[in-house]
Amino acid sequence: MAAPPDITAWRPRVEGIDEVFHARFADHAYPMHTHDAWTLLIVDEGMVRYDLERHEHGARSSVVTLLPPHVPHNGGAATPAGFRKRVLYLNTAQIEAGLVGRAVDRPVLHDPSLRRRIHQLHLTLERPGDELEAQSRLALVSERLAQHLRGQLGAPPSPHDRRVAHELRDLLDARFVEGVTLREAAELLHAHHTHLVRAFSKEFAMAPHQYLTGRRVDLARRLLLGGMRAPDVATSVGFYDQSHFSRHFKRVVGTSPGRYARTAAAVGAMPYPRSSEPRTNAA
Description:
Elements: E1 6-10, E2 17-25, E3 29-33, E4 38-46, E5 48-52, E6 55-59, E7 64-67, E8 73-77, E9 83-90, H1 100-105, E10 108-109, H2 112-125, H3 131-150, H4 162-175, H5 182-189, H6 193-204, H7 208-225, H8 230-236, H9 242-253, H10 257-266
Antiparallel strand pairs: 1-2, 2-9, 3-8, 4-7, 4-9, 5-6, 5-8, 7-10
Helix pairs in contact: 2-3, 4-6, 4-7, 7-9, 7-10, 8-9
C-alpha cells in the first residue's frame, strides 16, 4: 500500500509569491491543468515526468524547472519510489509575459547556483519574520530566471553604486524597528530591487536584511541590559515573535537573550547608559 501524500502549503507575506507548496507523493499523477502563475519547481527526491505543450520532460534533483502560466501540463512520478518536491508559484509580475514562449521551449534549467538560491529562499520562507531576506532572495532568483530565458547569463553585473547603497543604509537606520519592504525601499530610492541588494551588499559586505537584523539585535542588547524582559524586547525591536528574536540573537551574540540578561545581572552590571557618549571616571 502506497504511503499517503505529505503536503504543506501556505501563502507567505512576501509580495511576488502567491503560494509555497511542499509535497511528497508516492503514486499521485497530476492531470493536464494550468496555473495563473509561474511554477518554479525543484525536486529533492526521485524524478518527475511531465508533458508541456505535447513535449515530454523530466525534472531531476539536479535541475530547476520553470513552467509558464496558462500553459497546460501534467506530472507524475518517473519511478516507483515517488518524489519529493518544493514549488514556488510566482506572480506573473515577477517575470515578463514576453518570455512565456521561451519557457515553453526550455523549461529545464541546468544551473546549480540558481538551485542553491531557490533552496535558500525556501528555507527563508519557512521562518516568519524574515520577509526582507526572502524579498531580497526572490529578487535575485527572478533576475536569474529572466536572464536564463533571455539567454543573457553572461551579462555584466550592474556597476558599483555607493550613493544608493548609503541611501538604503540611511533608510534602514531610520526604520529598522518597524521594518521596510524591498518594494518600499525601491520606490523611495528610485532604484530597482536587485540593484538595491547588489549595491548594498557590495558596499558594506553584507545584505540589507543582515544589516537590519544587526541593528535590531544591537538595540535588544541595550534593552536587556537595562532590565527589560526578553519577551517585551522582542516586540520592541521589531522581531516577529520570541522565537524569531531568540534565533537571531543567539546567532549574532552566541547565547540566548535570557542567558545574556541573567549573566549581566549576576555580575551586577549597571543599566545601559542613556547617552552615547563614553563614560569617564571622576578625577
